[in-house]
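--- STAGE predict ---
source: upstream dedup step, 1 unique chain passed
mode: sequence only
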Amino acid sequence: MSILDKLKKKQILLCDGAWGTFLQAKGLKPGECPELWNVTHREEVIKIAESYVDAGSDIIETNSFGANRFKLSNYGLAERAYELNKAAAEISRQAAGKERHVAGCVGPTGKILIMGDVNEEQLYEAFKEQSAALEEGGADIIIIETMTAIDEAVIATKAARENTSCIVISTMTFDGDAATGFNTMMGVSPSEMIIALKEAGAHVIGSNCGNGIENMIGIVKEIRSTDSNIPVIIQANAGVPELIDGKTVFRESPEMMASFVPALIEAGVNIIGGCCGTTPAHIKEIRRILR
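--- STAGE serialize ---
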């Protein structure tokens, strides 16, 4: 069954948690390419995926957030984009088995269309390459994450829809709160996101990262005020990141994060997961609440 079939049966699905902070905990050094670990530290990457399987995740992501050729060019690895994405999906598929879904992770390129850094065709081709490689490696979902510019999010969504048979999830990152309003760094509201990404072909739409799970409730409510039917995914950070003694710290405990899950479900969420700072312990506690 695809995730859409499961969601039609009113199931609340559980995604996994953070990958970047997990890799750092396993020894990824500043300036290292996280996605290169798919071939140089394969067993360590598999262990991350397996830890989320053990925590109860229905959907396992891939170590491919920055594996587009633009970001990989910073490491001299642009020509290995297909290889590294395919390896990322193969790793997560090995851990997930046949019973769980694999979501090939696609992040922003770091290029801005309105600044003339890149053109639409170049962006499209980069996202096409990444999405196709993730599907070949075993992904049945493409999840486009942490977008702030609506034009880039739309191009990524179209590239995934038009060049794979995968379910496409598209999420953006919002700042603000219910009192001041939610907007991405580029000024996009949740309502504007829904209209544009639904037209682009996204099967599931939502938000990831941001400033903690409590504010995600307001984002879901705004999404639902615009569209009552589209499946919604939320993947929150474990609170607002704080720099303490040179280390980034996320203060929300598994119990604290999980305490907001009932309110998210009441607001209309369909898939819940974690982003920066979340661990298998956070996902396990959310699974306990869902049960």
